Amino acid sequence: MFSLQIVYPSGYERGSVRFHSTQWPQEGKVQEVTVDDIAHEGLFVLDVREGQEYVEAHVPGAVLIPMGQVPARIDEIPNVPVYVICRSGNRSRTITELLLARGFEAYNVAGGTMAWIDSGRAVNVGTAP
Fold first, then answer.
1. Catalytic residue among 62, 86, 98, 115, which?
2. pLDDT tens per residue, range 14-42
3. How many whole angstroms from its chain centre is CA 41?
4. CB distance 109 to 35 below 8 Å
5. What are phi and psi of 69, to 5 degrees?
6. Which domains does the chain have, with CATH numbers?
7. How far apart are the C-alpha atoms of 119 and 116, rounded to whole Å?
8. pTM to 2 decimals?
9. Residue 78 among the catalytic residues
């Protein structure tokens, strides 16, 4: 018989994103990309804002998984480079660190959705990616 035990790092609570920074990649290890870098189709863009923020405006094609739900829904994230975005880049940085610790190739989008909007690019509204 085969059994599997999931062991979470110290300070990590299942279903949350609370963790001690010493458990994850150190400062400076997160690579940032610009909105110019994610402006082409075919990239997996993960939006970690809350649902209402996403509905108001989001990068076309971005998939919504709110920050607090990412640990519980991590299996929904494909094994491809992940470009994590939020409003300004802070929440996405935290989730990028989490994804890196879980073995994903992940990048934080500097400036977030606000930088996307400020660049003059189109946004989608509503619940559809």
1. 86
2. 444 444 444 444 445 899 999 999 998 89
3. 17
4. yes
5. -100, -10
6. 29-118 (3.40.250.10)
7. 5
8. 0.78
9. no
